[in-house]
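fold-stage: in
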Amino acid sequence: MKKRSALFFDIDGTLLSEKTKEIPASTVRALQKAKQEGHAVFINTGRTLCSVPVKIKRLAFDGLLCGCGTYIVYQNEILFEHPLSEDHGYEYIDRMRELQIDGFLEGTEDVYFSERISRFENVESTRRYMASMGLGVEVAYEKKGFRYDKILICTDEKSRKEEFFQAIDKDLIPLDRQKGVYECIQKGYSKATAIEVMRRHLELSMDQIYVFGDSSNDLSMFEYAKHTVAMGEHDPVLEPYTEYITDAVEQDGIEKAMEYYRLI
């Protein structure tokens, strides 16, 4: 048997095609082979647990690392969880409305939208997508009474975003997702810190860690790991930290990368 390794995968654009919205058969096959070879396979995503697609969960990953390192499950055991405190979380909801910021809040159990219709179409399109998964329909974020892990905000010329960034600075870092969209993640937590928790838990060396991603929110794990695989269509910010560029998701990129490294 090959030396056991741990493989960490982003979801959107890495496992799940942005074009077809499906997981290629070659990817499913490669993951099954990797597990047969004794490797541990993990999801490492900015999505919180509730919004990981069922089609991904069905693939029997060894663990789910969610919310940019704020929620970690290994073999159905919660190893770590860190939602925002209630008082700070509620404060940020109030500040969003006051400063003309819109978006949604991402928690382990649900995703929370405003009770008001947003002026941002990407917020409303995300609301529709989440509703199709049974999420974001029970509790409007103005009602409070819940805890969450991170915030996705949309801004425009009406938004006082710099004031909002100052307000959240004690807990959150805004990552620029372009076109006025910011992913606000908890300070001190990232896809990299999540991998480190699992690496230590499994008692693996850095040489046994492989990461697969495509977007700027994968940067921390690319900076962290030695073996880094960028998909054929990827954000250029990853390239200085990329060891191997594989093909696109739809062109069997995951399977080809695993074969390149002789993991399968």
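fold-stage: in (second)
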Amino acid sequence: MSDEMKVVSLWRHPIKAHGREEVTLARLTAGEGFPFDRIWAVAHDLSKYDAANPAWVPCINFQRAARTPALMAMTAQLNEATGEIALQHPQIGAYGLNPHDSASVQGFIDWLRPISPAERFRPVGLAQAGRAMTDTSDVTISLNFTASLADLSQQMGVDLSRDRWRANIWVEGLAPWAEFDLVGKTLRIGKAELKVTEPIGRCTATSANTETGLIDADTLGGLRQRVGAQDFGIFAHVTRDGVVTPGDRIEVL
């Protein structure tokens, strides 16, 4: 099993639920999230996030594709040197965000309004916690597996895009759904090591088409029928530093 697995692609999401970006290299650091992934989130009007005392809070405090499926069609490109983020969406066009400039942030919130709730849960500002704004209270990265996606697509009769699942690392070379057997084990990718913690419980965001932002597939129903749970992919903690690139082999320690 370990000799067959390898990295297919690497992805980050600079703003939680607001855009995806493929990258060609990731320098993983023990105890930290995927580099530049979910470093920002969009707080809504009912959020309990406190900007005066920034800290991680659950995802229900932020704008999410589960409530706003149109977000799934957004892409992002982060300039690591400046921190600026170029965003693109088929309905509302392009926006260049400087997260550290209040006027630019307000422009970003205004830009989002046509595809966001108008009253309750409307976007109001950016949030940052000094750590990855993951769905998990501890800092994790996500790994998804191409064979499981192909199996689910075949069962549902729908060509499901990888982009629906917002992974950090896509992996090939493992039998469908065998990734769940990796929970509790340590993976080595290059010099990096990751401890697998749990399956990823999925939400309705995955039911939206990533080109249109429209709901078009009952992915949760498909998962329940196929594996008996709404799980797809696995979470892991980085336990040893290392550089990861597409093509790297993955070993189970």
